[in-house]
Specification:
Elements lengths: L1 H6 L3 H12 L36 E5 L2 E2 L3 E3 L5 E2 L1 H12 L6 E5 L5 H6 L5 E2 L7 H4 L2 E3 L8 E6 L16 E5 L3 H9 L4 E5 L2 H9 L5 E5 H8 L8 E8 L2 H4 L6 E3 L3 H17 L1 H9 L6
Helix pairs in contact: 3-10, 3-11
């Protein structure tokens, strides 16, 4: 998840878009989206037991600073982002805020640091893989990163579902999970491959393709930024697929930390039910992914 995301987007460009949205500098218009709700990943009727953490000395979250809007440093040099706020809410929910620490390390060092007990949990958008599961355990997902279509406003698309794109040119970045997903889910669509995201979005903006298919996170910021010039809007979806997009965002822990894993799952379920997870989501994704 994270590896493919970082391979397709540059930090400075994305952070600029984040600042534009956060500062409400986007001109209202066609490109803006109505904020959408975060899908409930925990059954509202499910009650996960809260383990006894009275013997917990401290809870150390490890993260990085190169994955905005999930984890980054703000203008004052402080840790910020969706994952940072979520870690703090988890600590509050577990009533261990006084014992909580959040430390930023280079992304490449996170797995080794956790294995060496330099921290207790990694919250940094690390993709779950079969190899990692041999060494670590993971909480339940707290956020899915879907795929979405984005359409050009001037394209004559008759309908508001993916079926109306049948036979029409839709851009996609070649050799990505989204290209494979588009072919598997929508074989009737005429896929037009591009070398990179920038070329795909330029073609969409210029009307050379009617729509594009890509990561909803990137698309939601682009359509709401000045870069899109109000040309386009998110269209249909969202589309989720564990096969192509992974298991979603989770927290990684050591395999022998079963009590702490259960505690974090309890906190995530509680935050999902009481709406605080939704509040954090809308704070960083004002135009929604879903």
């Amino acid at each position: 998840m994270r590896q493919s995301f970082l391979a397709s987007i540059r930090f400075k460009v994305f952070f600029t878009l984040l600042q534009l949205v956060a500062a409400s500098s986007v001109t209202p218009g066609f490109a803006q989206q109505t904020p959408s709700s975060l899908p409930l990943l925990f059954d509202a009727r499910e009650r996960l037991a809260k383990p006894d953490l009275s013997s917990l000395v401290r809870l150390r979250f490890l993260t990085s600073v190169d994955f905005p809007p999930f984890n980054f440093t703000d203008q004052n040099g402080k840790l910020a982002g969706f994952n940072i706020d979520l870690a703090r809410e988890i600590c509050d929910e577990l009533e261990v805020a006084a014992k909580c620490e959040i430390q930023a390390l280079p992304f490449a060092d996170l797995k080794e640091a956790l294995a060496a007990s330099q921290g207790d949990a990694v919250i940094a958008g690390l993709a779950v893989t079969s190899d990692l599961r041999k060494q670590f355990t993971f909480t339940r997902p707290y956020l899915m990163l879907p795929a979405r279509f984005v359409r050009n406003a001037k394209a004559e698309i008759n309908g508001n579902t993916s079926a109306s794109l049948s036979g029409r040119p839709v851009g996609v970045v070649k050799a990505t999970v989204h290209e494979a997903m588009l072919a598997a889910f929508f074989p009737a669509i005429k896929a037009v491959p591009f070398e990179n995201k920038e070329a795909m979005l330029t073609a969409l903006k210029d009307g050379k393709v009617d729509a594009a298919f890509a990561d909803a996170l990137q698309l939601s910021f682009w359509v709401s930024s000045q870069a899109s010039a109000k040309c386009c809007a998110l269209f249909d979806g969202p589309y989720l697929s564990e096969q192509f997009l992974g298991e979603g965002m989770t927290i990684m822990l050591r395999q022998n930390d079963g009590v702490l894993t259960a505690a974090l799952d309890h906190a995530l379920a509680a935050l999902s039910r009481n709406g605080r997870l939704q509040e954090i989501y809308l704070r960083y994704f004002p135009y929604g992914l879903f």
